[in-house]
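Recall from the previous lesson that a structure prediction takes nothing but the amino acid sequence as input. Here we apply that procedure to ERIP6 protein from Calyptomena viridis. The sequence below is the only information supplied.
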Amino acid sequence: YPSGNLAIIVTGQRDQLICTIQEDEPRTAKIRALFQSDGRSTCYYPNGDEWINMSIQGGQYLDQAGSRVRRWAWPNMSREPHVPLSPIFISLNRHVGVRILAQDKIIVSFLAMGRQAKFNMGIKVKVSATSQLHAPAWLGKDELLLLAFRVRILQLFNRMRGCINFPSSEQWNKMQPPAYLVTQAAKILERCVATDISEELCSSITAIVKQ
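The prediction returns the following tokens.
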């Protein structure tokens, strides 16, 4: 950002890349969006609530109350007639915007000091004509585990920032996670109850988000 704060960070994890978009804040910068090279992405409202969630099968758009405004499936990802995507544009802040046009055209644009940079976060998925992918139940086991591990990673990032900001004190280890992470963890646990998964898996997800 013009302020000098990091806006977009790209990191490698095993065999995939993760693009993280942060808010323009000097310390404990909130995560505004995560894009993964395996097709999973999430954009967040300023308060940390989910705004847009996408997977290799499709995506959904939520309002600030958590209600689904729109849901779509990518073409060729199911034998059922897919719900087409109407182009979506959201502004994460005055410098960063996200435009979703297709599975392989998810554009993150960064504008500052009269100059613009664009990054395509979309992916191309090849599906054979004889063997199409079946879309799993919405928020099934994989989706819930992904959300739980994402919250856990953000919790660890928060603790790392505390350690950096207070290197000579043990107070950082006693810091509570930000309110938006507490809210996300609670929502995941609510979805576990509402989803038909085993008690063992539900216990595992609970342990992940409450560590």
